[in-house]
Amino acid sequence: MRRAIVDWGRFILIWAVCVLSFRAFAFGSYYVPSESMLPTLAVGDHFVAAKYAYGYSRHSPDITLPEGFIPTVDGRVLGQLPQRGDIVVLKPEGAPDALVKRVIGLPGDTVQLVHGRLVLNGQVVDRHESGAYDYRDDHGRTIHVTEYVEDLPATDGRVARHAILQRGDDGPADNTGVYTVPADRVFLMGDNRDNSQDSRFPYPDLGFVPLDRVIARAQFTAYTNSFCKAESALTCPGGDWTTRFGRNLKP
């Protein structure tokens, strides 16, 4: 009997170590708490993200490790630079929960918003209107938006094509100064451009995000608790709950 208990204890310990290692170094699952990534991700979406994509830092595990735990120059092991257009998971400074945003600017890039248009390194990024509609937000309010497809130039010569929402082109963050992304930082934005606290807003909101705090690349949606149903004259941005399973999140 005692031997059986020891064997079971060993099995549970090994299983726990394997699960924790998998979550820390391979893939993690995350929940979307806000509308900042509409129409790509809705409140209630659960998605899988690759933790190996950009290397590992002390922020990679579910519990952040002590400062200096990884003794490297930039605090990362096997570090890789994200691509523009990647949807990433980050652990922002001073916030208890992980966030999800899209990479817009890399170290050395300049980023600006002019009348709602994204200007990257002095060039206006192409966008194409794909429709206008009303939807009910998670507070029950009816919101009117225009949806565009934006052609963000990725760093490997590809175009990271993705949908964005705009309530208008002259909101508080639709006309900005020029942001120059520092070394070892990235500039992140939400796809719901007029409803996202992102790198357009300096710390303590978000500001430029250190690379060691970018912990994973979103891969695909696993399931959703979003049960939006199109109502009369109202739309579900990005589709209703029946279309949100297994959605590819890589640009």
Automatic annotation (TrEMBL):
Q: Which domain of life is it from?
A: Bacteria
Q: How does it sit in the membrane?
A: Single-pass type II membrane protein
Any idea of its EC number? 3.4.21.89
Compartments where located: Membrane
**GO CC annotations?**
membrane
Going by the UniProt record, its keywords in alphabetical order are:
Hydrolase, Protease
* EC primary class: hydrolase
Q: Name one GO molecular function term.
A: serine-type endopeptidase activity
What reaction does this enzyme carry out catalytically?
Cleavage of hydrophobic, N-terminal signal or leader sequences from secreted and periplasmic proteins
Instruction: Name all Peptidase S26 domain ranges.
Output: 6-221
Question: Active-site residues?
Answer: S36, K101
**Gene3D superfamilies recorded for this chain?**
Umud Fragment, subunit A
Q: Which GO terms describe its biological process?
A: signal peptide processing
The record's family statement is: Belongs to the peptidase S26 family.
Name the chain's protein: Signal peptidase I
- The species is Nitrospirillum amazonense
